[in-house]
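Lab notebook, page 48
Experiment: co-folding of the full assembly
Goal: obtain a model of how the components sit together before planning crosslinking
Operator: M.T.
Materials (sequences as entered):
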Amino acid sequence: MAVRLLTMTRPPKDMHLAFFILHFSFPAEVLMPELPEVETIKRGLEKQAVGKTFAKVDIRLARVVRQHKSIHEVKERLQARTITGVKRRGKFILFCLDSSDVLVLHLGMTGQLLFSTPKRPFDIDKYTHVIFHFADVGNLFFRDVRQFGQVFVADRDKLETELGLGPEPLSPEFTEEVMRCVLNHTTKIKPLLLDQTKIAGIGNIYSDEALHRARIHPLRPASSLTKKEATQLYTAIQEVLNEGIRFRGTSVDSFTDSLGRKGTMQHRHRIYRKDGTPCCKCGATIQRIKIAGRSSYFCPKCQK
DNA sequence: AGTACGCCCTGGCCGC
DNA sequence: TGCGGCCAGGGCGTAC
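Observation: model returned without errors.
Model output:
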């Protein structure tokens, strides 16, 4: 049963998913884990992984392990280390260890973290690329169909430099003034919001939602935004991200949290993937265009 | 330096 | 029904 669920793309809507520990799967409908989804996963992992000690790391696909000369280095640095905390930075999940190291995971577009225990086991399939064996009981599976995810170990003190991310949009450091600084570029506002070095954690869904709420056209040069518009966008970004977290992320197909509960943020999207349907604000038909190779949804009437 | 674009990878979907 | 070709996209490398 578990195998079928993990590999099927569209589970029946009424299927009971309570035995899922952490499940992220969206092959049919493309969706990337953005800040709210990663935060939801992180909160689940926090409860399950803290205090666990790595006994063995089984790397089945070397290419998902990045930034290391050998996979043995990763194994060695994790060996017998205990997880002291789980954090999130942008779209990265960070496992703090009882050493100077941090285990870093990025889910890419289709990455999953599955907590397998004898009571609630998961089957290993061809997409299970890394298995973290714990000393006491259970394993953590890193599973990723499209292999855009990544796993690596970093020195705690060098992590920020290594990740090279912009400010956390929900942190106190992210002020309106910081926002105006970020906007000081000639590039189009949509790709700028997706640029992780400018602001960390925003992806295609939440950038479109934020721009719609702020009534800003995705093709506008970032530097053309007025002070008022910058404030609107600043507020909109925080609103959509907070709402995303509150509703436990966007579930497409079978994304669930650590208790098998689905997120409901997809029901609150106003613009994302709603092309051809009327805008909730003005009734105009929502359009879809490609910007820098990515789909962008916007209302041609509201967003100027 | 800043910006643009192609590539990685897979399953799903569309058209023939 | 079967199969080839195209699509989705986060982040990185390369080109301009």
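Interpretation: The radius of gyration of chain A is 20 Å.
Next step: discuss with group before ordering constructs.
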